[in-house]
Write a structure and sequence with these properties.
Low-confidence stretches of chain A: none
Largest sheet of chain A: 3 strands, antiparallel
Strand order of the largest sheet of chain A: 1-2-3
Helix content of chain A: 40-55%
Number of helices of chain A: 3
Order of helices and strands of chain A: HHHEEE
Low-confidence stretches of chain B: 163-170
Number of strands of chain B: 0
Helix content of chain B: 55-70%
CATH topology of the largest domain in chain B: Rna Polymerase Sigma Factor, Chain: A
Order of helices and strands of chain B: HHHHHHHH
Strand content of chain B: under 5%
Distance between the termini of chain A: 104 Å
Distance between the termini of chain B: 62 Å
Structural class of chain A: alpha+beta
Mean pLDDT of chain B: 84
Number of helices of chain B: 8
Oligomer: heterodimer
């Protein structure tokens, strides 16, 4: 064995480490304490997905009824060649009206 | 049957291992301040996971691996903090830090893995096979690392306590 190793071994054996008697009361309390619960990742992911779906469904239901036709509208009681028909009126720009009858 | 049915039955194991474990942590961390905390934390983690341990297996290697992992993560955290502290470093030089224990300084000069291996070799008198079993690495890796530790020890012999005493005496 190298003399340098002897020195290291002796220095390590001379280390002052606190005794167990001093540490045990603290350690004993910590042993009895409940381990902090880790957040369950799967549960939180499921909750997040559920919330996204719920908000999406709510928005669809809440705002779909109020949605007004922006690009055009359907006209009722239209006749074409004396036969009942449907007409869709579109306004592609401010100066143009387009009527589609079928 | 659990290895330690309750906290009181855990005490003999603590008495047997606490000092050695704190010394192990001190060698890896390079200071004694956090070593005690690491030793306590490792023992608590072992106690909490005692139900998962096989009743016929020795818990000591598991304990040392926990302590090693805690020490490594503490060193990583300290390195992050040091890197952040550089940004807020004052222009005026601070007071010089207190002089560390020469053995702690020598251990701090080693890479992290070598610190654990060197401690188990010098302080616990384990051979390469036992160290490999404790740390969960191969025996050949331990032998290579031990050779590097020895060569480093020869190179840095002057920093050790006894040689300091000799140089002061002369």
């Amino acid at each position: 064995m190298l003399p340098e190793e002897e020195e290291i071994r002796r220095a390590l054996s001379e280390r002052r480490i606190p005794s167990v008697e001093r540490v045990w009361p603290t350690l004993r309390e910590r042993l009895d304490a409940r381990a902090p619960r880790r957040p369950n990742v799967r549960t939180w992911m499921a909750v997040a997905v559920f919330l996204v779906l719920a908000v999406t469904a709510f928005r669809d239901l809440r705002f779909s009824r109020r949605r007004l036709p922006v690009a055009g509208f359907v006209v009722a009681n239209v006749r074409s060649f004396d036969r009942p028909a449907e007409a869709l009126v579109l306004q592609p720009d401010a100066r143009t009206l387009m009527v589609i009858v079928r | 049957m659990a290895l330690f049915p309750d906290a009181d039955s855990f005490r003999p194991f603590v008495e047997e291992n606490f000092t050695r474990l704190a010394s192990f942590a001190q060698s890896i961390l390079g200071n004694s301040f956090e070593a005690e905390d690491i030793a306590q934390e490792a023992l608590i983690l072992l106690y909490r996971s005692r139900l998962r341990l096989a009743s016929d297996a020795s818990p000591q290697p598991f304990l040392y691996r926990i302590a090693q992992r805690l020490c490594f993560s503490r060193l990583r955290r300290d390195a992050r903090r040091r890197a952040l502290a550089v940004l807020h470093m004052p222009l005026v030089p601070r007071e010089s830090p207190p002089i560390a224990d020469p053995v702690d300084s020598w251990f701090r000069g080693l890479p992290r893995r070598q610190r654990a291996i060197a401690h188990l070799y010098f302080a616990e008198n384990h051979d390469a096979g036992e160290i490999a079993m404790i740390l969960g690495i191969s025996a050949s890796t331990v032998r290579v690392q031990l050779a590097r530790v020895r060569s480093r020890l020869k190179a840095t012999h002057s920093t050790l306590p006894n040689s300091e005493r000799c140089s002061h005496a002369s």
